[in-house]
């Protein structure tokens, strides 16, 4: 009976850890997308073909 509770606790901990990991991974992906959009659209290096001058 003790092994059942140990297994249940491990499954619960793994489920919570996986949920937290997925949420953090989603935050990182959104942040990377924002950074990529910002770098690609708003700022251009002076020697890029799209720069005016």
Topology:
Layout: H1 2-41
Structure commentary:
There is one protein chain. This protein is an all-alpha fold and 53 residues long. Helices cover 75% and strands 0% of the residues. The chain is built from one helix and no strands. The radius of gyration is 23 Å and the shape is rod-shaped. The mean pLDDT is 84.
Q: Quick recap of the structure?
A:
With 53 residues, the chain is mainly alpha-helical.
Structural classification: mainly alpha
Order of helices and strands: H
Span between N and C termini?
A: 77 Å
Morphology: rod-shaped
Largest sheet: none
Please tally the helical runs, counting DSSP H or I stretches of 4 or more residues. 1
Q: Helix amount, in percent?
A: over 70%
Beta strand count: 0
Low-confidence parts, pLDDT < 50 over ≥5 residues?
none
User: What is the C-alpha radius of gyration, as a whole number of Å?
Assistant: 23 Å
Keywords for this structure?
single chain; 53 residues; mainly alpha; 0% strand; rod-shaped
């Amino acid at each position: 009976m003790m092994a059942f509770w140990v297994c249940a606790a491990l499954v619960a901990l793994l489920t919570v850890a996986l949920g937290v990991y997925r949420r953090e991974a989603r935050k990182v992906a959104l942040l990377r997308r924002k950074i990529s959009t910002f770098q690609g659209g708003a700022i251009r290096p002076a020697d890029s073909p799209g720069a005016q001058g």
